[in-house]
Design brief:
Metallo-beta-lactamase, Chain A, 7 helices, 7-stranded mixed sheet, about 325 residues, binds zinc ion, 2 domains, Rossmann fold, alpha/beta
Length: about 325
Amino acid sequence: MLKIDQGIRCGEYFAVDPTVKSDLAVVSHAHSDHLKAHREIVATAPTIELAGLVYKRFRSKIVNFHEKFTIGPAEVELAPAGHMLGSAQVILDFNGERIVYTGDFKFEENRTCARAKIHPCDTLLIDTTYGMPHYRFPKAEECREMLVDFVLKNLKRRITPVILAYTFGKAQEAMEILGREGMEMDVYKKIFSAAMIYSKFGIDLGRFYPLGERPVSGRVVILPPGAFRFVDSRGWGRYKTCFLSGWTIDKNRGYGNSNGFGIPLSDHASFDDIIRYVETAKPKKVYTLFGPSRIAEYLKRIGFKAEAVDLKTGRSIANHSAGNLELFN
Ligand SMILES: [Zn+2]
């Protein structure tokens, strides 16, 4: 009845973060690896609004955090995930068992969204994107200061600071940090549309404008890293890029010092926070998702029943099982 098969599927009733078009999807947040063109989406109001920037035709049901509702045999509750505006953990009560799917989550303060808490459960499906011990990030406050310093230093030298940040979430977090310091920003079209939704939900992102052919002097440019490659920046004068991502910890991935400046402001939990979640939630079984499968080995060593699973196929990553992993009958 409850299994991992192209998302977390509860029989014919619904699926959580299904990886293919589905009739009824409970969606944790608006990033493209969690959101597809479903017929009906159940999510928080910001997630539904952001989904509307990507997909035009879908039915929607808005639910607030901690508002319990029933779909088929399961009671469902969304709780803050601290990853981006509207991002949710999904708590399922099913057959007397509590299953928590963290979605992408982060504990540390992100001023653009509600903070994540740990939810004790029987079965935990946890985001382990940064599930290796070297993924220990500087404090968010330190990263925010680094960002402001980078921008001020370059503006002073009449160099345009170009911040590379993912369209939904990270870009608006950067805007909140810089907007608060009174800086004006020229932002990529899609970042602008998402920022308008953030503003609608009461997140003050300061003064920002859609980026024209070239940036206005004295403003900060914010672009998704993918788009930056295709922008014609020949008429921009002097500029310097800064990539905002947890991946900048990995210098050898080319995201760090070798490829412009990088600040490891992550919107996912660090390795220590992943372990803290598991140790506090005390699940009988843990499934690790999105990230290095070795974290499951580590969790076993500290006494948990753990398995790394692919959310798409339901395959156990360690023993290449057949897939469509059954969680409960
Ligand atoms: Zn995400």
